Amino acid sequence: MGEFVGGRIVPKHCGVWNKNSKYEMLSIVYQPETGNSYISRKSVPVGTALSCEEYWAICSEYSAQVRKLEQDVDADVEQMHTDLTQTKADMSREFSETHTAISKELTDTHTAISQELTETESRMQESLQLTTETLSGKVEQAQTDLNTGRKELNDAKTTLNKRMDSIAGGMTTDSEILDARVDNQGTTHASLGEAMRSAEKTHGLWDDWLTTIVSQLLDEATGRETRELTFDSTIRTFINLNGTVGTLANESDSHWHTSEMIPVVAGHVYIITASSGWKKYYYAFYDSDENVLAGEIAPDNKSGKIENRIVIAPVGAVSMRITWIQVSNFMGKVEEVTRFLFPTNELNEKPESRMVAVETGLEKAKADLIAAATGEQNTLLSAAVVEGEAVEFTYTANRCINEKAGEVVPLSSENTAFRVSDPIPVAPGELYAFTVSGGWSKYLYAFYDADDKVVGGFQQKTDMIRTYNDRISPVPATAATVRIAWVEYNHFTGIIKKVTRISYPSAELVGTAAEQAAERDSRISGLENHLASKVVDENYEYAIGEAVKVTENNGMLLNPTTGATVKEPTGNTNYRLSEPITVEPYTPYCISAAGKAGYGLYAFYDVNGNRIGGENNTTTTDRKIESKVVTSPARAASIRIACINGMQNCSIQPMTRGYFIGMKPKWAGRIWACLGDSLTESNSRTTKHYFDYIAEKTGIKTVNLGVSGTGYMRRKDINRAFYQRVSDIPEDADVITIFGSGNDLSSDQTLGTVTDTGTDTICGCINATIDAIYERIPLARLGIVTPTPWVGSMPSKPTCGMAKYSEAIVEICKRRSIPCLDLYHESNLRPDDENFRKLAFSKDGGNGVHPDEKGHEIIAASFQSLLERLIL
Questions:
Q1: Rounded to an integer, what distance in angstroms lies between the CA atom of residue 816 and that of residue 614?
Q2: What φ, ψ does residue 435 adopt, rounded to 5°?
Q3: Of 33, 211, 665, 809, which is least packed with CB atoms within 10 Å of its CB?
Q4: CB of 436 closer than 8 Å to CB of 445
């Protein structure tokens, strides 16, 4: 019997009718004598003739019009080949004429150059004669001066001998100083200083000349080829202005990196990506003695970065270093330019452009032929039945097709289920159906020209494996081969078929079979709608989550029946369609969409890519929906959303059930601003903070203002101290807490007295933070929390810096009537206890400073008691 797929029954195709076979209900057979196809009304016994109407019904009659259409298509193809031959002949003639014109121009140029060389040679002979006469006179004068100088040299001989004897007997090698006054051109300078200044000037002139030449190359080049250099690096380091590598003391600065020495060649061009700050080098070039020759310095008092900066290694450079401040999407990189690409003497009117135009025309003609053959335009992806001949091929396991150049490459981790076929010969204009699977932007199939370069194909651009059955694609005009890729498993393998016939969805079933199918579809749809209607419970509040990132494709529409993507007939790029977005079944979503009249607004798909629900624009004009609550169907795996530029963007936001109406926690909707250091910041030391535990129980909304490495005073040099970040606190915050910070004790900063003002002492900065909060939010409900104890700074050491720091915070709070939570003395944390540290500081690297999830749960109860004193 046929298979039930996506709300309809797909008949089973059994090929050529065999009188000796029996057939299930809804089986389609083909009678080659007449060209007709028949469908079984019920189970058919062996030997039942096709003429028996009790068992068989005609579902497809061979048509003379189809034969006529095939003949017309063949004629059009023949005419297309004739036109292509004529176009190639015309282009060959144009190439020949262009070649003749270029040859004549080269001959004329050669003649002109020969004439100019003859004239130049004559002028040089005249100049040489004049120069000879002048030099003869100067030689005679020099002979006279030489005779005069001989006497002066003999007079100086005795004096020089005495001086050199003195030099040879002493420790100072004056002879080297005398030699240093002579440059590489044999010029003797009046002093060693003058010789050094001349050398420095010459060095600078060489650098300037080199920079000028390479800059001209960069200006004239249309492109370049590069190779990325590899190197090791050290953390918490930077490049000083004298070229040495400095070290940062704090673990929180471990994102600073400096490369080891990278070999370079003077005059070569390099492309550098780096970052630094506070007047340190982004990069620096060194000579063989590791003296800095050149580099680029970051701005003072802040960080900066350079990306793809083109630089030239100066004269004398043998190595370089770079510094970068590493984050998730930025790290240092050095590339060496290995080749410049320059414009070639292109032929007149660029015949290669005309070839591209011809190929584009062929693609268009081919698409028109396909449309004529199938009777529909842009409907290949909505085909219901594809008939064709399976193509045999060989394959290689543990391979995928690279998304950049179509190269076949091995997987980084071996997986033999991922397979790629060897090249399969194809011809331009042929239609093939591909059964393939894959993901992560890799090609599922790729067409190649005779030089094995990619000229077309299909990529799956989601980060998950998608499967496609009988996906139809025409062979591009320049293609010679195709490769397919798939992930093998029990019930799936890669297949390629040369298409011989395409059928489209239609009302093929008649009578009782059609009625039964319709009734079954209706029951299933009704059940799914009933279940979906129960997902959103009106007795609860629902929160709308963050919008899911959507990738849109221009000029695309949504087929209202199949959910397939189709091109906008007029080429209007304002109509757009999202890539598939992963969804969960029976989940409410808030959707905004817009669609063209007669097309889909959004469509849900199952894991096989079949449309299983959605909404269409059934009006006669463009229509949009905004923030509509929609529940995904039971088998939903993804959704596509349509939109119109300038009218409505694609948007989908998941919804989560909140509190039962009338039973909100007392702090639901209230805002808590948490100002602090690394114990408040979201980082790798814990996945759950003190405020997360409280928010779960009370419903309060938290604003995380924690910054690692900061304090009331620390990092004021980069405007990140607590008092400098008060402007980040929302003015509508219901409660504010300041937690920390032992970081103030990590450098030689003066504690001061509790009455200090200004920002020259730690106590002054504490008061300045409080003053700034009250100035910004006069009615602020403020609570201050001392730091928790660290290893080596326990309350059992009352004279340690942390104890005095915490006592100062407590005393300032008393003087200013501010509720204070003294976690230094009352935290229940014992970092000095090794067993406790392993349990509550497990992600801190043994430092005993940053509690993990268990440690934060311990101090959360104390924080909640503080909030009870601040808000109702």
A1: 62
A2: -105, 105
A3: 33
A4: yes
